[in-house]
Specification:
The complex is a heterodimer of chains A (about 230) and B (about 220). Chain A is mostly helical and about 230 residues long. Helices cover about 80% and strands about 0% of the residues of chain A. Chain A has a domain at about 35-170: MetI-like (MetI-like fold), CATH 1.10.3720. By secondary structure, chain B is an all-alpha fold. Chain B has a single domain (about 20-215), classed as MetI-like fold (Orthogonal Bundle). The model of chain B has no long low-confidence stretch (mean pLDDT about 90). The chains are: A mainly alpha (about 230), B mainly alpha (about 220). The interface of A and B includes residues 68, 88, 166 and 184 of A.
Amino acid sequence: MERIIEQLPRFFSGPNMLLLLEAAGLTLGMTIVGCLIGFALAFVLVFLRQTPGLIWFPLRLICILYVEVFRRIPFIVVVYLVLFFIQTVTPNASLFTIAVIAICLYAVAYTADIIRGGLESVPQTQVEAAQVMNLSRLQINLMVVLPQAWPVIIPPAIAFAVSFIKDTALVSQVGVFELAFRGKELNNQGFSGILVFGTIALCYFILSFPLSLLGQHLEKRLATPRGQRRSR
Amino acid sequence: MNYRFQFGVVWDNFGALLEGALLTFQLGVIAFGGGAIIGLICATLKTYGPWPVRALVNTYVVFITNTPALIQIYFLFFGLPEVGIRWSNEACLLIGLTLNAGAYLTMILRAGFLSVRITELEAGQTLGMSLIQQVRYIIVPHIAKSIYPALANFFIVVLVMGTSVGALIGVDELTGQAINLSAVNYRWLEYFTVVAGMYVVLTLVASIGLALLGRWAFRVKARIF
């Protein structure tokens, strides 16, 4: 205990705090970039999955398999696979790029399911009415289904991104300088583990808690009472 | 890209990977079971307890669910020896995972508690049911039906995301085993491809088992895919 108190001034020095701030920024940046790209790609995946006809069946199968497989593999395994695959293809890729790609691949699988659920929540009659009006499939999705599906898609998508801030801690294993990595580094420098990991946990909390509150708020704002959906 | 895959090494060490998979499964089951007990107690306290207890449970849930499991386990593994508590790698992983799962399960179970409507209980009382009968015939079936899919889903999360954290503190579960083995001969891609496949098989078996159990015990139509 006295060791912790003795270390306090040295631990909370300017350079250390700057280091942690930078690391927190990296954690947040990695998550945001990865999840945004993943979200966009997930839309493509879902639209591909909707393609009609027998010719596109292999494509649909690949999309379904992709989602199912990636939801069942631990993030750390995906990180390792991406790391060693990218390094055999282009040896000079930065670790940040590798981390973002891994987050992306993972986010696609999870958000694709969220998006599909959102699109399916729109009554089929809406789609049929749009088909009668002779809209193309893209037009139906963009102009009829999506505007109604947003309230169902956005809250869980944000909840996923927020929960993923925590999962990115695993990327520290391949040497990206984010919060968990810096924590281990400081611990190796001789600072008390309780102090270091308590502080790191607090950093994650500060990143994650306000965003999760925002997510809950949005969920309440956007949620329509049951029965109201159909009549809109 | 002129990388030649050599899966031969992996098959030679397949037994070690299977041992890792077994450990993963055991860790997942124990952590989920322990978490379920914590979750049940905390959800009950949060719903029916006096306000200081509720506040305490709330703090536990909010703090655990907003920090990474990895950091919690690092805290147990690197932090606690300083105050004289020294646990093995496996114990640290298990205790950390159990506490972590407990917080998430508190949220899931509480959602289930809230889904029982008071009118249902009143109807039960009108029929002259005792408290135990109410729990047995009204509360449990209702809660089971409404939260079983979420529970089954969370078990997979613990089994996959949870236990794989152990690799980072040197527990020889499936991911840890793969890291150990591939550090010997640098066949990372091959080992991790096989391990990914093993995780898919493991979770598929667990999902199918849980779906059948749900159908048999609670008449829940839990989806496998």
